[in-house]
Amino acid sequence: MYLLGYDIGTSSVKASLVDAETGQCVASAFYPEVEAPIIAKKAGWAEQEPEDWWHSLKEATKKLETDGTRRLHDVKAIGISYQMHGLVCVDRTGKPLRPSIIWCDGRAVPYGNEAFDAIGHEQCLTHLLNSPGNFTAAKLAWVKQNEPELFVQIYKIMLPGDYIAMKLSGGTINTTISGLSEGMFWDFKNDCVSRDVMEYYGFPDDIIPEIVPTFSVQSTVCDAVAEELGLQAGTPIAYRGGDQPNNALSLNVMKPGEIAATGGTSGVVYGVLGDVNYDPLSRVNTFAHVNHHQPDTRLGVLLCINGTGILNAWMRRNVAPEGVGYGDMNILADQVPVGSDGLTIIPFGNGAERLLQNKEVGCSIHGLNFNIHKKAHLLRAAQEGIVFSFAYGMEIMRQMGMEIRTIKAGHANMFLNPMFRLTLASITGATIELYETDGAAGAAKGAGMGVGIYKDSDEAFATLQHNTTIVPDVANAAAYAEAYERWKSILKQIAGRQSRE
């Protein structure tokens, strides 16, 4: 008995086959093997063809069974993870009317800002828990304004995961509350599709698909797709979630106070909140988590940090000795005491940060002493600056009422560095748990929950492979706190100067 999970990413589609009894991933594949193209007709635009996702899914699925085992015929449920915030517009036949406007496309920012002002900041924050921003609703507003002849042909709008579920089922179109919330279509106060958003933008009510529970039999695989992919017709499609909520699910981050973190080129902190709340300065995004349902509020508070692994990579190219890899950089940095002997790096050199209210503070080095500081100091100060940005974001979450006790992360990227994770644990006071995890495999287990193979996430992820536990360094608590307070003081000075300018 198997479960099948798909992760519809920007670069590729990954498929994972999970043994439902053991919880182990027995096969995985992705397609294409080179990064999928992004269409950018103008600066700041980013589009992808939905049919390309579907083609990649079929190719990845075929690669799962190259040994003739026919395990796909024994799949009992399918789950889908997908890139968040994308807009797919289809006609009555389910055909895409245009390429999908994906998450990193920036054209809709003015439409979201205008809605924020027109609807009212307090109204948006108390009902949507966010500014309308550059999310799916604002992207649809751009289509309505700039492609009116196409807009009137739209039968339904979908997120990327909704589109894939439609293709698997042969035409069933539906979505989830979690998906609608990430598109700024959900009113948390009234527990319904937002009248404010629909009426302000002039969207017809029937453009929104039917709403189904996140964990449920949402549709089933049609005969034609079953034959093409080697599945059984009628196999339930029983879970879908955006990539960040799904990453949290994959780490079994489902309870208030738990945090899922990633540290790749950019970093993400995703925390679960047990009460309906928002940041009045809109420095974080708040969505319905995959296990949100009345009366049990479960919100995902998401913070994206741009200057993480990209700063570490810059240090490797420009500061580290020639030929030194990340592992050796970590060893060098660990030779320097906590606080880098007074050297501080502000790490935001990869664009404006939402947690800084979009102020362009850049990357800068402070306290450099030519007689003391060496390359190792720069390497450690960069790592500490990245950690401090994570901690700064978590302070916002605490202000929203989140009690942060545990940070869970995959054993990858920045979390491979012992100094990085010890500093993060020590600054936040939280225990860090590292796991071997996979978004597609997590989606597969989500589907197992959706059909009742697992009674809850604790049972579904009981076999999640634990790697390491990191606890705060109590002995050096004062040194960590001093370095962090110095970093925050410098950051506030820079941000204050930029505001005055």
Q: Can you characterise this structure?
A:
The chain has 501 residues and is of the alpha+beta class. The chain has helices at 50-64, 109-119, 121-127, 136-146, 148-151, 160-169, 177-182, 195-201, 223-229, 243-250, 309-318, 326-333, 375-399, 418-428, 439-450, 457-460, 477-500, and strands at 2-8, 13-19, 25-31, 47-48, 75-82, 88-90, 100-101, 156-158, 174-175, 186-187, 192-193, 210-211, 215-220, 236-242, 258-263, 267-273, 285-288, 299-305, 344-348, 362-366, 406-410, 431-436, 465-470. The strands form 7 sheets. The protein has a 7-stranded mixed beta sheet with strand order 17-18-16-15-21-22-23, sandwiched between helices. The protein has a 6-stranded mixed beta sheet with strand order 3-2-1-5-14-13, with helices on both faces. A two-stranded antiparallel ribbon has the order 4-7. Helix 2 (109-119) crosses helix 4 (136-146), helix 12 crosses helix 13 and helix 13 (375-399) packs parallel to helix 14 (418-428).
Short description:
The protein has helices at 50-64, 109-119, 121-127, 136-146, 148-151, 160-169, 177-182, 195-201, 223-229, 243-250, 309-318, 326-333, 375-399, 418-428, 439-450, 457-460, 477-500; strands spanning 2-8, 13-19, 25-31, 47-48, 75-82, 88-90, 100-101, 156-158, 174-175, 186-187, 192-193, 210-211, 215-220, 236-242, 258-263, 267-273, 285-288, 299-305, 344-348, 362-366, 406-410, 431-436, 465-470. The chain has 501 residues and is α+β, with helices and mostly antiparallel strands. The chain is 36% helix and 22% strand.
